[in-house]
Amino acid sequence: MENGLEQNDSNSEAENDIIECKKLLIQVMEKENKLLDKILELQTVLHQLVRDKKWETLNRDLDNLQIMSDQFVELEEERESLSVKINISQDREISPVLTQVRGKLQKSKIENHALNEYITTTRKFLQGVFDSVVPQRRNIVYSNKGEIVRPELKSLVIDQIL
C-alpha cells in the first residue's frame, strides 16, 4: 500500500512541476512578446532615421536595440530550459503565445531584411556615383613592396543651387 501512495505522491509532484513549469513558460513568453513589440517599434524608427540621415540618433537607438536583443536572448535561453519538460507546440495553453512570438519574430526578420536591402542599395548607388565622379578611385596602385595602395579622395566640388 505504501508503494501505491508513494507513486501517487511522485505522480502528483511531477504534475505540479509541469503545471508550475507551464506557468513560468507562459510568463517568459509573454515577456518575449512585450519585448518584441518594443523591438518592432524601434526597428520602424531606425528605418525612418536611416532615411532622414539622423546618424547620432540612429547610433543611440542601435545601442538600445542591441540591449533589447540581449534581453531577448536571455529570455529565449530561459524559455528553452523551461520547455525541456513540455512539448510547447502541442500544448493548448502555450500554443497561442508561441504563435504570437513566432509571428513577431518573423515580422522582425522581414523589417531587418528590408532595412538591410535599403542600406545595401543606397551604398551601391553612392559607390557608383563616387566611382563616376572621382575616377581615380578605380585605379589600383601598388607600392614598391607589392601592397595595394588606395589613393585618397581629392577634394570634390559639387555644383548645387540652394
Task: Give the helix/strand layout.
Elements: H1 2-52, H2 55-82, H3 95-133, E1 141-142, E2 148-149
Antiparallel strand pairs: 1-2
Helix pairs in contact: 1-2, 1-3
Can you give me a brief rundown of this structure?
By secondary structure, the protein is mostly helical. The protein contains 3 helices and 2 strands, in the order αααββ. A hairpin with a 5-residue loop joins strand 1 and strand 2 (148-149).
Strand residue content: under 5%
Spatial separation of the terminal alpha carbons: 95 Å
Radius of gyration: 27 Å
Main beta-sheet strand count, sense and barrel state: 2 strands, antiparallel
H/E order of the elements? HHHEE
| Low-pLDDT residue spans | none
Strand order of the largest sheet: 1-2
If you average the pLDDT, what whole number results?
81
Tell me the number of helical segments per DSSP (H or I, 4 or more residues long). Answer: 3
Question: Which of globular, elongated, flat, extended, rod-shaped describes the shape?
Answer: elongated
Structural class: mainly alpha
Secondary structure tally: strands: 2
User: What helical percentage do the residues reach?
Assistant: over 70%
Structure notes:
It is a single chain. The protein contains three helices and two strands; from the N terminus they run H-H-H-E-E. It is 73% helix and 2% strand. Helix 1 packs parallel to helix 3. The protein has 162 residues and is an all-alpha fold. The chain is elongated, with a radius of gyration of 27 Å. A two-stranded antiparallel ribbon has the order 1-2. It has helices spanning 2-52, 55-82, 95-133, and strands at residues 141-142, 148-149.
